[in-house]
Amino acid sequence: MTRSAPDSCPGVLRLHEAADGPLARVRLPGGRLTPEQLQVLAEAARDLGNGALELTSRGNIQLRQLHDATELSQRLTAAGLLPSTTHERVRNILASPMSGRVGGWSDVHTLVPLLDAGLQDAPALAELPGRVLFTLDDGRGDVSGLGGDIGLHATAADEYALLLGGLDSGIRLPGADAVPTVLAAAHVFQDLRGHFWRVRELPDGVARITAALPHTPGEETLELGVRHDIPIGWLDQDNGLVSLGAGVPLATLPARTAEFVAATGRPLLVTPWRSLVITDLDEDIAETVAGVLAPLGLIFDATSPWLRVTACAGRPGCAKSHTDVRADVAAAVTTGRVLPAGAETTVGTDLDAGELEVAGRQHWSGCDRRCGRPAGPVTEVTAGPDGYTITPGD
Ligand code: SF4
Q: How far is the CA of 369 from the centre of ligand 1 (A)?
């Protein structure tokens, strides 16, 4: 696919003009967020936006209906959430959320600041498209299958496979060489890419980037599948503390709820599944936190139907939408029409929202662009001018 225009990914300094007003996307490399930063975002959402934070599938946060972009950028800069004016849109780094706390070969969160700093220190990499995604997987396989461009996948305690275009390049790296090689691959891609935005779009991209690196690929390669691995509920950490994984209905976190989360005072993670993790809690504190946050709408039950559904923005945020998708999804969840996997799904086209019963993982869209569709098998519930069409997942 050849691209004829620069990518239009929004940031804080370049807002997206959505149908309901300007939208900002705040990059959170590794999905990492301090409680103080979440408090700043909550206040910004309430003072300058529509009062809610949207979690994205790249572990970022979006603010909608902004009316003072200058004030927003000043607040985020002061909070350390906008460390670069030149590289903000290339800081797209996913990391295995529970790495370093629960399982995994290594703690890839220690690599996040190194990669982030390396990106920001390289003037040429400011020209990477905002679509480029870096992935750091600690070997559990939760983020390597999420469609990254350049990534690391731990294969032992101090060894990483280099991923290019979501595939194992065959190159194996000791820990000390891992981030420098990712940065070298990013430079090669930037040199080669022309009008292409993603490694997988570049003809022979994986082979050409591999050939330009000073490493010889081996013959064995990993098969990297897509895993739907949301950390939800009580998660015992390896160090005796507890993390709480919290689902966020339709990935929209009201500012007031965000302030309650920030009040825990613990490090926070935004996951690629648009959920939160509150980390490093003592057991008794964790029980109290869950008891406070569950009534506010956060989900700690892994069987909740809210965890089966994702949706695009729909109306009023997107002018292309045929309907208010999120209202239709919410009605389906609250009236018991989002069913467990294996149950019977309504079939057909031009269906009324109120008659849909859909089983298993499902993505609802306001038009056939299907923005935000998660990777892997998922039933598509897509609005058209005359109603919804259901396309079952594999
Ligand atoms: S899928 Fe269609 S309606 Fe939904 S956000 Fe994308 S363009 Fe808009």
A: 6
Query: If DSSP codes are grouped into helix, strand and coil, which group holds residue 140?
Result: coil
The amino acid sitting at 296 is: L
Residue in 333, 324, 386, 385 with CA at minimum distance from that of residue 359: 333
Q: Which tokens hold the place of 338?
A: 């989002």
The token pair at 56 is 């994205």
Q: What is the pLDDT of residues 188-214, one digit of tens each?
A: 999 999 999 999 999 999 999 999 999
Q: Are 373 and 352 in contact (CB under 8 A)?
A: no
Residue 120 β-bridge partners = none
DSSP string, 171-235: EEEEHHHHHHHHHHHHHHHHHH-TT--SGGGSTTHHHHHHHHSS----S-------------EEE
Cα-to-centroid distance, 364 and ligand 1 (Å): 10
Measure 321 CA to ligand 1 centroid, in angstroms.
6
Atom of ligand 1 nearest to the CA of 313: 5
Q: 81 CA distance to ligand 1 centroid (A)?
A: 28
Query: Which tens digit of pLDDT belongs to each residue from 351-388?
Result: 999 999 999 999 999 999 999 888 888 999 999 999 99
Rounded Cα–Cα distance for residues 339 and 362 (Å):
10
The residue whose CB lies within 8 Å of the most ligand 1 atoms, and thus the one to mutate among 250, 252, 367, is: 367
Fold of 233-302: Sulfite Reductase Hemoprotein; domain 2 (3.90.480)
Question: Residues lining ligand 1, CB < 6 A?
Answer: 312-314, 318, 320-321, 365-367, 369-371
The residue type found at 104 is G
State the distance from the centre of ligand 1 to the C-alpha of 327, rounded, in angstroms.
Answer: 14
> Where does residue 221 rank: exposed (0-12), middle (13-18), buried (19+ CB within 10 A)?
middle
Give the mean model confidence (pLDDT) for residues 8-33: 93
Q: By three-state DSSP, how is residue 230 classified?
A: coil
- Could you tell me the residue ranges of all domains in the chain? 233-302, 306-391
Q: What is the CA radius of gyration of the chain?
A: 21
Residue 54 token pair: 């949207």
